[in-house]
Request: fold
Amino acid sequence: MSVRCVGIVGGGTMGQGIAIACAAAGLDVLLRDRDEAGNVRALEGIGETLDQDIAKWRRTTGERKAILARIRTVAAIEALEAAQLVVEAVSEDLELKTGIFQQLDACCPPNDILATNASALSVTEIAARTMRPDRVVGLHFLHPVPVVPLVEVVRGLRTSDETFAHAMEFVRVLGKTGIEVFESPGYVTTRVILPFLNEAAHVVMEGVASAKDVDASVRLGFGLPFGPLTLADRMGLDQLLRWMQHLFHETGEARYRPCPLIRKMVRAGHLGVKSGRGFFEYDADGLPRHDLKAGARS
Amino acid sequence: MKVLVLNCGSSSLKFQLIETDEQKIARDEDVALARGIVDNIGSEAVLKVDLPSRGTTLRETAEVLDHKAAVSRALELLTRPEAGVLADPAEIGAVGHRVVHGGERFHASVLIDDEVLRAIESCFDIAPLHNPPNVKGYRAAREALPAAPQAAVFDTSFHQTLAPEAYLYGLPYVLYERHGIRRYGFHGTSHRYVSARLARHVGREGDPALRVVTCHLGNGCSITAIRGGRSVDTSMGFTPLEGLLMGTRSGDLDAAAALHVMRKEELGEREAQALLNKHSGLLGLSGVSNDMRALLEAEAQGNPRAKLAIDVFCYRLRKYVGAYAAALGGLDALAFAGGIGENAAAIRERALHGLEGLGLRVDPERNAAANGVEARISPEGAPVAVAVIPTNEELLIARDAYRLVAGLPLA
Reply:
C-alpha cells in the first residue's frame, strides 16, 4: 500500500503541522476540524506558518503555493474515505478520540490505516474500540511538526507487523526518521525528557544553583542548544505538571513525582513563555527579557 | 534514427523526440520532431507537447503519479495520429538521458548497463537532488522501451578535463579523498555544444590552440574556459551554487559568511541550503524578481535595487571573463548562451564593458539585432570574436546517444 492521500482529523497546531509535512512531501491532504469555522482557522494557521517559513528562508513562495494546493478541508468525516491513511490529532480526551475512531472505522475502507497522534492515551485502548485493531497505530509527531525530524511509531498490543511497516514507510516518505516504540506511558521522548526537566526544577528549589546557572551548565557542559528550564518554559509548566502527574499516576513510580516548585509556579500563574514568566521572563514576542546565552555570571 | 531525449527532475519530465543520423549531423539538419513536458508528477499533472513541424501544441491534464507513468504518457502522446511524429514506440532507436552528476568516473557519455547504473547511483550522495530522479527516468524508459539502448549524458563529464589546480579547493586533502569534495562543474553539455558551434562559427573547428570562453546564462549561470575543445576551468563547483550570480543562487560566497548567518539567524542546514539556492542571487538582492526581463524593466522604471542586482550580476561575470582570459593565456572567442545570454543584449554589453583591453568589443547594432539566433556581435576586425550561440543540450544528448548506438566515436 502506498499512501497518496492522507486524512487528518483535527485542525489544531498538531493537525496543521502534520498537514504541512504531508503536503510538502507531495501527498494530498484532506483536513477536517469539528466545524466550518475550525476548518477556516486551520487553513489560516497553515498559511501563517508558511509565511513565517518564507521569512525564515525555509520555503519559497512557489513551495507555499504547491503546499496549499495539496491541502483541502472537508466538512464531513466520511469524505476521509478517499485517504489511504488517516491521522487523528484532536485533544487528549479518550471519549472524543474513540468516537472519532469509531466514525472512521465505519466510513474508511477496511485496509486503511488509522493512526492517532495521542501522546498520553493508550493506542491499544483506542484500537480496541474499532473493528480493525490490527490496523491502528500511534504516530507521535513532535511540535513543530514540519521541523522536528522524528516520529515515534507506536505499536499497540494488536498493531500488526504490516501496519507498523506501512506506518514506518509513511514516515520515511515525509522525510522523517521513525523509531519503533511499544506502547508505554510517555513513549520514549516524553519519558526521557520530563524527569530531566523535573530534576532541574528540584536543583533550583533546593537552592543548589540559580535557574540561569542550571541552564548554562547543561547547555555549555553538554553542548545542548538550550537548557532544561528554558525547555520547560517553552513547553509550558502547566503542561509539564500534567505530564508528570500522568506518568506518576500510570506507573506509580516515585521518580515521576512532580517537583513541588513546578506545582507552586503553576498555581501562581507562572506558566512559562505563554504567560510571560516561568523560570525566566519573556516579552510579548516570547523572547527572553535577559540574554540567557551570555556567560552564566553576566 | 529517432532518439528520445529525457530530462527527469524530481516532479517533472522534459522530453524531446529528435531525428538524427551521421548525414544529418554533418549538415546540421537534425531537428526536434516534438518537445514536451510532464509537469507536477505525483499529482494532477500538466502535459504539453510542441510539434514544430505542424506548428501546434497538444495540451492536457491527467493524474500522473510517478515517472513510470510520465514516460508512458509521453510515449502515448507522441504516438497519437494527430501528433504525426511516431507511428509506434518501437521506432525509437535510442533513449538519451540527461544525468546531472557523473562524479569522477564518467569523462564522456556512455550506454547504460548495470555497472554504469551502479556508478550513477553511487553519486546520489553528492547529488541528492538530481541523480535520483534521473535514475527513475532511466528505469521508466527501460520498462517502456525494452528494446531501445539507453545512453547517459552527464552535466559533469565535459569538465573532467580540469587539472587538479583548477578543481581542488584549499581544504585538507583528506576531504577530497574521503568525500570527493572538489569542483565538478555543471552545464557541461551546454558548454560543449556552444564551444563546438563557436569554433565552427569562427572557422577554427578542431584547432587545438583555440581559446574560448562560453557563458551559459539562464536561471542557473556558469562560465567555462575552453582550450582546443577541452574544458580548462568552470565557475560551478562541488554543487551548482558556486560562481556567477544566478536567478536565485548566491554564487561565490565566503563560506564563513554562511556559517555566521546560520548562527545569527539560527538556521539549520536545510534552511541554509534553501537560503543560498532559492532566496539569493538576483531575487535576493533585488527583492523584485529572479527574471532578468522583469529586472531590466524595473531598473528602467528607476528601481535602485533592481539596478544593484544587475550591476552585481554583470560585474561578477566581467571578473570571471578576465580570470578565464588569464587561465587561457589570452582569448580568441567568447559566446553567450542560455535565456539571458541569448536574449538580453543589454546584459551582454554591460558585462563586457571595459574589457576592450582584452580585445573584447561589442558592436551595439549587431548586439541589439542578435536575439535568440546565432550571430556575431563583435565589430568586424575585433581581436576577439564575440557571438550569441543558442544552446541545444537535447540535440547533443540525441547525437551522443545515436553515435553510441551506431558504434561511432563521440565528437
Chain A has two domains: 5-182, 190-275. The radius of gyration of chain A is 20 Å. Residues 190-275 of chain A form a domain with the N-(1-d-carboxylethyl)-l-norvaline Dehydrogenase; domain 2 fold (CATH 1.10.1040.10). Strands of chain A lie at 5-9, 28-32, 71-73, 85-88, 113-116, 136-141, 150-155, 177-182.
